[in-house]
Amino acid sequence: MFYSKSKSDGEKPKDKFIEDIKVKEKKVRSDSNSSSNSDVEVGAAADAVKNAVRAVDSFDDDSRHDAVFGDVGDDGPNYRNVGWIATIAIMLKTMIGLGVLSIPAAFDTLGLIPGVLVLFSLAGMTTWTGYVVGKFKMNHRDCYGIDDAGMIVFGRVGKEILAVAYVLFQTFCAGSGMLSISIAFNALSVHGACTAVFVAVAAVIAFCVASVRTLHKLSPLAWIGLVSIITALLTLTVAVGVQERPAAAPRTPEPFKSDFKLFGNPSFVEAISAVSAIFFAYTGTPSFFPIAAEMKNPKHYTRSLLFTQGGVTVIYTVVGVVVYVFTGSFVSSPALGSAGPLMKKVCYGLALPGIIMSTTICTHFPSKYIFVRVLRGSKHLASNSPTHWITWLGCVGGCATFAYIISSSIPIFSTLVSLIGAFLGPILCLIPIGAMWFYDHYRWADRKVNNPNTIKFKLLAGWNIAIIIIGFFILIAGTYGSVVNIMDSFKNGETTGVWSCADNSGSV
Predict the structure, then answer these.
(1) DSSP characters over 331-370
(2) Same domain, yes or no, for 136 and 4?
(3) N or C: which end of the chain has fewer CB within 10 A?
(4) Number of structural domains, the chain?
(5) pLDDT tens across 1-29, in order?
C-alpha cells in the first residue's frame, strides 16, 4: 500500500525510510547487549521492525489502502486499478487531441525547420518534466495533484497558486474541447443549428461522460478516442497529399503549388503565439500526477511516460510536416478543415469521439481534484454514500459549466489554445517541476549518489535552471502575444462574437 508519512517522518522517500528502520533494528539489538531487556522483548521489537519493512516494501502492489484515497473497500470505487498499458492510453489521449490540430498552423508561422526544432525541444523538456513528476510521486506518496507537490516545495501559498492554476488549466482545455466539438458539429451538419446550441450540447456530453468516477473505467473510452483521433489525423494526412488543392486555397485554372516556407518571418507576437500553441500540445504534465495516483503499480509510470512521449512526438511531427507541406499558408486551424469540404466532414466525423474524450478527460481531472480535496480523509471519498455522489456530480457539473462559459466567451480556437499554453502551461509544466527536482536532490541529497560537486549533478542542475527560465519566458512573452492576438481578432472582426449563432467551421 502507499505509505502515508507522519509529520515526524518528514517527507522521506521509501528507500530512506526503510534504511532508517533497519538502523533502528540494529540499535535495538545492540541495546540488548547493554541493558536488562529480556530476549523476548528484544525479539518482539525486532520482529515489529521487520514487519514494518515488509509492509513498506510491498506497498506498490497493494491497492486496498492508499495514501490519497484511504481504504478502498468493495462498497465503493477502486481508484487504484489502472495498468501501465491503460495508462499509456490515458496519457496519449491527454496529449493527443486539441493541441495537434494547431501544429500545422504554427509551422506556417515559424517556418518548417524552426517549427520542427521547437517541437523537438519542447518534447525533450516535457519528457524530462514528466519523468521528474513520476520520481517526485514515488518519493512523496501522499501527492495526488501538483498542488500537493506545491505544498511540499513552496508551502501553503504555492499549493493554492498551483491548485487554482491546475483547475483553470484543465477547464480552459475542456472549454477548448467544447469549442472543437461545436466546430465538428457545424462541419458535419453544414451549420445545421446555432453554434451556441452546439457548444451547450458539447457541455452536456462532457458532463455525462466525465461523471464516470475512475480512470480505470474511462480507459476503454480513452482507447476509442485515441484510435478515433489518430485515424482522423492519418486520413487528413493522406487527403492533403492527394487533393487537388487545400479547402482555403483560391480556385484558379493553374495547378496548385504549395507555398510552404522552410523559414518564416513572423513578428515577435506571432512567433511566441505559435510557440505557445506547440507547447500546448505537450502540456499533459500536470495530469500525470493524478494518473500515477490511480495506477496499480506506480513503478511502471516511467515506462508508460516514455511510450507516450515517443508516440506523440512521432505523430505530431508526421502530421504537422505533411499537412503543412501540402497546404502551405492555406492550412486551417483546427487542421481537420484543411482537406476540402467532403474530407473535412469525414475527418471531423472520425475525430469526433476523440475530441469528445479529450474534453471528457479535461473535465474529469479538475472535477476529481476538487472532489478529492473536499472529501479527502473522510469515509465518503471511497464509498457510494449520498454525500459521495452529491459532491462528485456537483464537482463535475461545476467544472463543465465553467468550461462552457469559457468556450462561449472566447470562441477562437487558435488564440484560445495559445493563451492556455502560454499563461497556464509554464506555471504547471515547467517552473514548478524544475523546483521539485531541486527540492528532492538537495533536501535528500545522498552525497554518494547526488554529489553536487560532480559534473553530472551540475549539468542536471543547469538543465533544470534552464527549464525554469524558459518557463518564465513563455509565461510572460507568450501571454502577452496571445492577449494581443485575441484583441486584434475582435478588433478586425475575425471572431464570431460571444455566445454567437454564427458558423465557426468555415462551412458556410
Answers:
(1) --SSGGGGSHHHHHHHHHHHHHHHHHHHHHHHHHHHHHHH
(2) no
(3) C
(4) 2
(5) 333 343 333 444 445 555 555 555 555 55
